[in-house]
Amino acid sequence: MVTVSTTPAPCLRPAMALAPSLGAPSLPSPETPNYQIQIGSLKRILPKKRKTLAYRFSVGGRLSTWPAYASGQAILQSRKPCCSPEGRSKKQASLTIAKPRYLEELECYLRKELQSLDLTKENAQELKLQPYREIFEFFIEDFKTYKPLLSAIKNEYEVTLAHLREKIRSLEPLKAMLVSVSDECTRQIVALQEEEKAEITRLKKEKLYLLKLIDKMKEEKGSLQTQVNKLRKNVAKEYMRYINECDARKLLLADLNEMRNQQLEMSLRQVQEVKGEDLVKVTLALKIARQDLTKAQVELNTMKADYGDVVPRRDFESQEKKYSDLFEKMEVLQKDFDDLQKEYDTLLEIHQETVEERDRFYNELQQVQRSSTPRPDWAKCAEVISGGPERWSYLEEGKTSDQLVDVLLEEIGTGVLKEKDSFPGLGKGDKVPVYLRYEGQVKNKKLNKKDVVNILKEIWKEKVSADLQKGKQSSLPEFFLSYLQKRYGDSSAFEWAYTIYENIKLYRSNEAMSLFYDILSGKVDEGLYHGQNQLIANLLKELMASDSSNSGTLTTEQFNLALRAAFPLKSSDRIQELIDASRYKAESTEDLIDYRSLFMEDEEGNAEPFIAKIRSQHASEKQEYLRELRNELSHAPEVKVDDLKTAFCAIDPAIDDLTLDAYVCLAFQASKEQWDQTGSLPVDTVVERLLAGDTKRIGALPEEIYTSHSLSERGEAGAYA
């Protein structure tokens, strides 16, 4: 027993001694007979204990010390060697310590509360925590000296538990979202695997079909070779038979001659005997006859020697005709076999490229799935774009995410451009374009799209007229500045130039502004603008020629024929794309196309989908044409004038000399008289310069190039299917 004082140290020891025992209470079994009796008595006793605990500390003045590890049993310390048996017995008797009664009451109360709880509920852990919280409150109330510190500890734990519960509640939706995203990714991967399995199965079937076709052609070739060998043997047999017949004929002629001579001698003898002619006369006749016979025999032997190996012309011509027919058939079959072999090799290459491309796309898909962000909700832009949802639906129609980003940048740039009152001048250096050479601040005219497009149309109209009068093409930057000076004066010309330049640099989605900016900055040759206008003008001329009634409408068949007449080099698929684009906004179901409306433009210079499709096809055809040229020039890193002309003639045999010279001048940036002074240029530089100009195919594709091009198109279509 120790004396309890008001200082913190003595009071802390019983609290620290009691706290560990509450962490692992020894609970009685519910099957004990006295269990219900103890619970009932505790309900009556425990409220009184809380009131009398302070009284015990103040009145008794003493508190029994009891360690947490005693568990109601005596503790025997280790015996020292110098201690006597009597001293040891006295120490053992004094170390037997009983558990304090207040601790036993608290443990009984804790056991009762824990056993009365329903731990099958979801909040079982919180229910289980409540009895321990009440026990801790008992300690706070009884230990007055440490009540502020214990209350602060209890409040901090409560705040921490509340914070953790709130954090757990906030993370539960994220867990559900993570599960849904994982399921969606799994479904996409399974779908892609199914598509790849179908594609692989189709390619395997096609490969087996081609292998069977090759085996069949090999069998046909073997059978034809067997027939040729058989015919050769038959010809040799016939030749031997003819030789034998010729020899037999010679022997027969010799026998006939001998028989004729014998008959002649017999007849002479008979005549000599009958008529009794003179023997000398008969002898002389016989001698002459023998000389004639010798002469005839010599001639016969000469003919045998000269024509012994000769067959009849009729039989020779018949066998020669049969041989030529068989040889022609064999050549045709050999050519077909070579074509099939080339096509098979091409298909194998396309298959290998397709497999590699599929693997690359799969890897890219995996990377995108790991690092991709959710697709933006573009509908939100309708709330901030001027014009509201109607204008935004018009702007986003038919555009990809990248193009929509450009549209947003244009809208943002439009607002920024309207807020500017002036532009800083770029100076008068040589690197500054002639139409921007100005020092100081330049006033912003604050033009809209419609005004800029109208000014650009007037500039093109004036420039075409001026070039026709001069007979040569002038520089667009210089004409641009001179036109503005002529119309607005020297003082305001640079204000208009800076304003127009900033607008066409901003609105890249507008075809008229974008093309004018590229030509003005030197990225594209001016011939591209005139070539597109000439292309559209020729098409309109063909359509008007097909419209005999001048009604402005054509049937689909007439429209198709007019397109093929205007574009004889386009494939059927691209013609069909143009027909579909012409019926993009068709409201009626009649088989009529209003071709005049296809060439209309809105107030901002935007063309209809039909004209946009023609321009996109023209650009893709130019890229294919230059890709063939690059493949033709791939044998050397640099190219000369003669090499370029040879390559153009190889991929486009119908190209005329005037067009060929124009392409060469464009590629080498030199006139025809300066070709001898020009050296060689890299292939990439030549192709880039031709890509910036109005380069197009003049004649149809050669047969070999057309075949490989068709095969590559079929391979690409199969790869993207």
How helix-rich are the residues, as a percent range? over 70%
Poorly predicted residue ranges: 1-95, 703-721
Please tally the helical runs, counting DSSP H or I stretches of 4 or more residues. Answer: 22
Q: How would a textbook summarize the main sheet?
A: 2 strands, antiparallel
Broad structural category: mainly alpha
Taking all Cα atoms into account, the compactness measure Rg is: 56 Å
Distance between the termini: 93 Å
Short summary:
The protein is mainly alpha-helical. It contains 22 helices and eight strands.
Write the layout of secondary structure elements.
Blueprint: E1 2-3, H1 8-23, H2 35-60, E2 62-63, H3 85-94, H4 101-115, H5 124-142, H6 147-275, H7 279-307, H8 313-371, H9 388-396, H10 401-419, E3 422-424, E4 441-443, H11 449-470, H12 476-488, H13 490-506, H14 511-520, H15 527-546, E5 553-555, H16 556-566, H17 572-582, E6 592-594, H18 609-632, E7 638-639, H19 641-651, H20 657-668, E8 681-682, H21 683-692, H22 703-720
Antiparallel strand pairs: 1-2, 3-4, 5-6, 7-8
Helix pairs in contact: 2-4, 4-5, 5-6, 6-7, 6-8, 8-22, 12-13, 13-14, 15-16, 16-17, 17-18, 18-19, 18-21, 19-20, 20-21
Organism: Chrysemys picta bellii
GO cellular component, one term: cytoplasm
Pfam families: TSNAXIP1_N (PF15739)
